[in-house]
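Q: Given only this backbone (316 positions), what sequence would you predict?
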């Protein structure tokens, strides 16, 4: 599935592709479908999972422009040239600082923007401190059981995605906390790197442009969890397309309500759910009565420009 949203997160177009479709091959069709809107330029924004040499060539073919978040791996160009490059950050927002880095010269030069989020860096440091505290306790427990030469617990720690990255194995076959790996992990705290072949974009544009991708990811989370897009129990293509279209329309309604009320759909829904319909029985008949809206519910209805329901719906 593909989804195009505005800066505010409103869905404006969606696509349903065959399950074996390669991500990069969808670019041409998306650009062609959006061309009818008379867009003067199109910028492809993607995450680190899209980055490969062949993908970059495909995205830049024909003068097309892209903006991608780069993976950061030990020993690659990003860690050697970008993270290690000295220079001052430029403050873009309270939680975002940027620094432009050029690698290479001439037409083959590569332009990167190193982005730093102090709040995220502090969160990652706190999380790692908790992990290291747990790991030290595990290693102390293993030392007390020194008679075991190669325990299953040691194997589990080394294979753990949570703990294994901070461990090293000594010549005697014992696990120790690797200070170098901890220091290496600290270099990545709160940082991400974006790369673009569009020189007209400023460093601020590149950082904020990539963060707009979070709008799409937020839309996917809403579709998959809140609106329960999956599972899809359809076989006919037209039924699958209809299922997806209805879900996207629901997403549009959610975003419209959120934009009008300035709050999340969950909070809006909880306030409106307090308006209930009661059925009252009496010897003289049955009354269908709507409960009086709370102050919060009344505020939501006013923001959404919806009239309050009549107190009495039916008398029988």
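A: Predicted residues:
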């Amino acid at each position: 599935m593909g989804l195009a949203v505005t800066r505010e997160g409103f869905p404006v177009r969606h696509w349903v592709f065959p399950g074996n479709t390669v991500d990069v091959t969808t670019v041409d069709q998306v650009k062609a479908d959006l061309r009818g809107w008379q867009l003067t330029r199109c910028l492809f924004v993607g995450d680190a999972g899209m980055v490969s040499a062949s993908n970059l060539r495909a995205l830049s073919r024909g003068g097309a422009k892209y903006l991608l978040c780069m993976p950061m791996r030990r020993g690659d160009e990003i860690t050697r040239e970008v993270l290690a490059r000295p220079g001052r950050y430029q403050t873009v927002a309270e939680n975002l600082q940027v620094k432009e880095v050029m690698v290479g010269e001439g037409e083959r030069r590569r332009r990167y923007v190193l982005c730093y989020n102090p709040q995220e860096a502090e969160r990652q440091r706190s999380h790692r401190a908790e992990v290291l505290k747990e790991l030290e306790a595990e290693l102390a427990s293993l030392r007390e059981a020194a008679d075991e030469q190669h325990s299953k617990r040691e194997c589990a720690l080394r294979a753990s995605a949570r703990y294994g990255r901070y461990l090293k194995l000594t010549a005697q076959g014992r696990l120790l906390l690797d200070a170098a790996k901890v220091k290496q992990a600290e270099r990545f705290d709160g940082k991400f790197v974006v790369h673009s072949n569009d020189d007209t974009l400023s460093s601020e544009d590149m950082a904020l442009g990539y963060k707009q991708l979070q709008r799409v990811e937020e839309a996917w989370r809403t579709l998959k969890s809140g609106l329960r897009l999956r599972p899809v129990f359809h076989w006919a293509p037209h039924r699958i397309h209809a299922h997806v279209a209805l879900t996207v329309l629901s997403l549009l309604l959610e975003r419209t309500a959120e934009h009008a009320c300035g709050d999340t759909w969950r909070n809006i829904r909880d306030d409106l759910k307090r308006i209930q319909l009661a059925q009252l029985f009496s010897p003289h008949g049955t009354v269908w009565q709507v409960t009086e809206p709370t102050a919060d519910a009344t505020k939501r209805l006013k923001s959404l420009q919806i009239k309050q329901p009549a107190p009495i719906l039916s008398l029988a």
